[in-house]
Specification:
The structure holds two protein chains of two kinds. In chain A, β4 and β5 form a beta hairpin. An eight-stranded mixed beta sheet of chain A has the order 6-7-8-3-9-10-12-11, sandwiched between helices. In chain A, 48% of the residues are buried. Chain A has twelve helices and twelve strands. Chain A is of the alpha/beta class. In chain B, the strands form two sheets. Chain B has an eight-stranded mixed beta sheet, with helices on both faces. In chain B, strands 2-1-4-5 form a four-stranded antiparallel beta sheet, with helices on one face. Chain B has eleven helices and twelve strands. In chain B, 31% of the residues lie in helices and 23% in strands. In chain B, α4 crosses α5, α4 packs parallel to α7 and α5 packs across α7. Chain B has a domain of 156 residues: Rossmann fold (3-Layer(aba) Sandwich). The chains are: A alpha/beta, B alpha/beta. The interface between A and B is large, with 44 and 46 residues.
Amino acid sequence: MTQPLLQVRNLTKHFHTPSGTVHAVEDVSFDIQRGSITGVVGESGSGKTTLGRALLRLIEPSAGSVHFDGTDITALPSARMRDMRQRMQIIFQDPMSSLNPRLKVGDLIAEGLRAYGIGTRSQRRDRVAALLEEVGLSADHMDRYPHAFSGGQRQRIGIARALALEPEFIVADESVSALDVSIQAQVLNLLLDLRERRNLTMLFIAHDLSVVNYLCDQVAVMYLGRLMEFGPSEAIHRDPAHPYTRALNSAIPQPDPRAARNRQPLRGDIPSPLSPPSGCVFRTRCDHAIPACAETVPPACPVGPEHDSYCIRTEDLNAHHIAGHHS
Amino acid sequence: MQTDDIILSVEGLRVSFGRGRIAVDALRDVSFTLARGRTLALVGESGSGKSVTSLALMGLLPPSGQVRAGRLAFRGRDGKVTDLARLDGAGFRKLRGPGISMIFQEPMSSLNPLFTIGDQIGEMLLLHEHLSGAERRRRVIEMLELVEIPGAAKRIDAYPHELSGGMRQRVMIAMGLVCHPALLIADEPTTALDVTIQAQILDLMRRLQKDLGMSILFITHDMGVVAEMADDVAVMYAGAVVEQAGVMELFDDTRHPYTQGLLSSIPREGRGRADRLVPIPGSVPSPFALPPGCAFSPRCPHARDACRLPVALDEKAPGHLSACIFDMPGAA
């Protein structure tokens, strides 16, 4: 296999607040191959948004490293990081609050090009026209203001803006969550088209596991700042190994009135990230927890090709997987 | 269906906002029926008018909103039928609580942060039932236990900010149910919650409906939640109901092209990327610039010239209504 575009190692982010230290991201490691889409799923407080921002150094990681195309970006001085940022972009959840309402769409999209001094004014205009067409809008939209567009169109503007500098890597943070389903499907298909056309690498952050399963090659499941499971999208969906992934899967209401309602509902609420449980952070809500779960943080336990579950009981709970993997 | 089994019948509801030349119809023609003891899901995307419909039923439209036409026949537990479209403020105050009650999407903004949850649930009893303070407190604790709040006798004195989002939604449900309403309107009650908490609340609502024998109007945009909760479904688009049917019927034999488009837009189980989603092209029209005739026609793959003429809900199969001039059985 070729060198991954992104190698995340032991990435950690703590926020120090008056009420204590928030363990937002704790010791997360994974690789992203060039041209793939990696999903990050988790509920509120899982640390998925912090992870996406720490990867781009939009917030500084507390510990760990991120190698982008072989360079450790966590060690780069800010001038070199600025150059690197041309290659890594982000699309936000709410296009209305991330687009300056006083700038015309054309200026919003060209902002990055201007900041990096790329092209002449008329060359930038041509580039913006081409970008608007590429995301399914039209070139004459560039002279309008963001408020003149619907939610789905604004999300397309956010995508065009992120593409302007021809990045290799894009973080999309809940980029379709605020959209109605009929519009959400349009934007998901656009992201798939762009990946094929431009060989883009993406980190797609979402709370909706069925959207992630549709879009992504591999999925990272997070809970209280830690990875619970990481593996191919298909395996995470059809045959999840970690008790949390299973619970998350079975909690999603299926659009099929005949679907069996055989849930394993999770008890209780997510504990506070100010004082996460010792050992496995999920153990307080896990049906399979044993005393040993309180003692050590579970290491990665392989359950298949490129598929790890962070659970010390992985072997007992997935006997069939392990047998298949070792044979 | 016997008419005395119908707890709520909405016919031709029209609601407009503003006055004179700037008036706009938020609801153009909303009709549906809800049978006693059942759950009717009112589904639609943003701007379809589902929340305005619920506010009209509760008499909670803002002053700029007005019911222009329609009949909202509600049959209470005593069998008496009231037309909510003609009810005044005093009438609604008597009805809200024991007749109809409502739970909202955002429990944090619908609970008063300055009062304990016990005070807020008890307030409903204060308004509608004559009980001593001790009796009231006992009833509130009973309600908290009913909605499975652990340590109810202690939590009764907690303030909203001391509870998690899921627990606050349970408090909202307790408040909605404390006067034993005949009809509960639930407006996106789980939309702001994480999926694992949503699953807990949906399970709770299903159990409570069975135990208390109430009817539920469940407003949602999520077809997964519809499939799980509803007995019957009414689909709204641009201020009108475009399809109503039993839940199995609606999913198995989808008639209206909008409902078909909605279902083919959802990523679902066993469906990978190889099998691309088919989105609905374009976006919802502004209520100020509705197309003539069928409001969905500009986005509809089957639209023809005839779709520019007005179209009404029409029974295509027993109990299955669709507002499309063509009959499109099972094309989803």
